[in-house]
């Protein structure tokens, strides 16, 4: 199936990659920031014999953006209500201190409130899907400065709050922070993004977790 797109008067043009759709297969939706954008093709390749894998072509950014855009992404997936797994994450943008501000975009309290709202939206839009939340990955251990400051110590605190919430809500947790925490700086291309080898590792980790629920 060719890639589809749709125009919404509030959302503008939105699209989701869905090349290779096959009827009768399980359907997986991946949502997340530039870390997801780095590993999604590797995950799709790993799951090519098990599921149709979709993901937004754009960066899903921060929690509020995911909540607003979720319905538009759902609209461009064939039989969106029949999605079997939604694997999602946000964190780096939420934790970042933008343009030199002293405060994160979302405090931990604001972050967890938004995560629960996203969870509720996922349950409404994809009532039969297994929901999987992925933790936020660490910063480069060599201390390369971020364009918009955040630290691994802060990420750990946000992850703790997110995990506690997801456990309360009964959401599955894919701890990709744990998978990445001991990677050396040679696996990073900058302050938080990975080389091809690093994204390949994460993509396989995500696929291995998802396949348990297909």
Break the fold down into its secondary structure elements and pairings.
Blueprint: E1 4-8, E2 12-17, E3 26-31, H1 34-46, E4 51-56, H2 63-75, E5 85-88, H3 92-95, H4 108-125, E6 130-134, H5 152-169, E7 172-174, H6 176-180, H7 196-210
Parallel strand pairs: 3-4, 3-5, 5-6, 6-7
Antiparallel strand pairs: 1-2, 2-4
Helix pairs in contact: 1-7, 2-4, 4-5
Work out the radius of gyration. 16 Å
CATH topology name, in short, is: Rossmann fold
The number of helical elements comes to 7
Mean of residue pLDDT?
Answer: 91
Report the count of strand segments.
Answer: 7
Approximately how much beta-strand content do the residues carry?
Answer: 15-25%
Which residues form runs of ≥5 with pLDDT under 50? 1-8
The CATH homologous superfamily is named SGNH hydrolase
CA-CA gap between termini: 21 Å
Label the overall shape.
globular
H and E string:
EEEHEHEHHEHEHH
Main attributes?
214 residues; alpha/beta; Rossmann fold; seven-stranded mixed sheet; 16% strand; disordered N terminus
Summary of the model, kept short:
This protein has 214 residues and is of the alpha/beta class. Helix content is 40%, strand content 16%. The protein is built from 7 helices and 7 strands; from the N terminus they run βββαβαβααβαβαα.
Q: How would you explain this protein's 3D organization?
A:
This protein has 214 residues and is α/β, with parallel strands linked by helices. The protein has one domain: SGNH hydrolase (Rossmann fold), CATH 3.40.50.1110. It has seven helices and seven strands. It has helices spanning 34-46, 63-75, 92-95, 108-125, 152-169, 176-180, 196-210; strands spanning 4-8, 12-17, 26-31, 51-56, 85-88, 130-134, 172-174. It has a seven-stranded mixed beta sheet, with helices on both faces. Helix 1 links the parallel strand 3 and strand 4. It starts with a strand and ends with a helix.
